[in-house]
Specification:
By secondary structure, the chain is mainly alpha-helical. The protein has one domain. It is 91% helix and 0% strand. The termini are far apart. 7% of the residues are buried.
């Protein structure tokens, strides 16, 4: 019973964090990073509850893809910042 309550509280907290961060964040990197963080927390919960292997593998693949997308968006922001700095 305590584990189920902890999982519910964790899911609600992650949902609230994602909702607030999604409304505040302006860049794609921040939004993608927030989604990756939420998927990571869901992945942790899924492994603790003993979900089937395909669920864990799918969440892990999604987490890795979102992490790579976050890195790409960060590199794009850095490139654009350097490019605009050279023009001015």
């Amino acid at each position: 019973m305590a584990t189920e309550d902890t999982v519910r509280i964790g899911i609600v907290l992650v949902g609230l964090f994602a909702l607030v961060f999604w409304r505040i964040a302006r860049s794609r990197a921040a939004k993608c990073g927030a989604i990756a963080l939420a998927v990571y927390f869901i992945l942790v919960v899924a492994t603790k509850l003993g979900s089937p292997g395909w669920v864990t593998a799918s969440l892990l693949a999604l987490f890795l893809l979102l992490g790579l997308m976050t890195m790409v968006f960060l590199i794009m922001q850095a490139y654009n910042a350097v490019r605009h700095k050279k023009r001015n």
